[in-house]
Write a structure and sequence with these properties.
Elements (H helix, E strand, L loop, with lengths): L1 E4 L5 H13 L2 E4 L10 H13 L18 E7 L7 H9 L6 E8 L7 H8 L4 E2 L3 E4 L7 H10 L4
Parallel strand pairs: 1-2, 1-3, 3-4, 4-5, 4-6
Helix pairs in contact: 1-5
The structure holds flavin mononucleotide (FMN).
Flavin mononucleotide (FMN) binds next to helix 1, helix 2 and strand 4.
Length: 156
Amino acid sequence: MLIVYFSHSGNTRRLAACIQRLTGGDMAQITPLTPYPQDYDAVVELARQEQRRNVRPPIAAMQPDPAAYDTLFLGYPNWWGTFPMPVAMFLENYPVGNKTLVPFCTHEGSRLGKSEQDLRRLCPQARLLKGFEVRGSRVDGAEPSVKAWLSELGLI
Ligand SMILES: Cc1cc2nc3c(=O)[nH]c(=O)nc-3n(C[C@H](O)[C@H](O)[C@H](O)COP(=O)(O)O)c2cc1C
């Protein structure tokens, strides 16, 4: 299993690390070549424009190579109701095909939003499993629910 994630302010990274501890999977980060601004208003506006224009921001080559894995966890913060555009870029650069895809998301109220629908659209052949969502501020206490989710899916 490979745990692929994008994180801007660290919440999704901590959730990815929790999944890593529980599954023993490998980890790989989606890194945009141009970092997003740290200023909240600036990143919110940029993300909004990227989504409107369906932009694909270039990302760094992934290590390890996702092609070598059958099951990909895919983690992201909810940005404007779905995953950030670097995640769409990842899906284009590393086609999921018929692999198993397991989404997880941090947010401030919108849960997974329409991200699962968007994943289904971009990866029509993938075996898309039930996603996990938690508020960014609650990631640190989320291990029991992460464990329950992974058990339910038969992944631990
Ligand atoms: C550009 C941007 C857009 C966001 N849009 C939403 C949203 O539509 N719904 C929501 O619940 N949270 C939204 N958030 C909050 C993030 O999803 C939340 O803080 C998340 O835990 C951040 O994850 P990270 O620390 O891994 O970057 C947004 C945050 C940013 C920076």
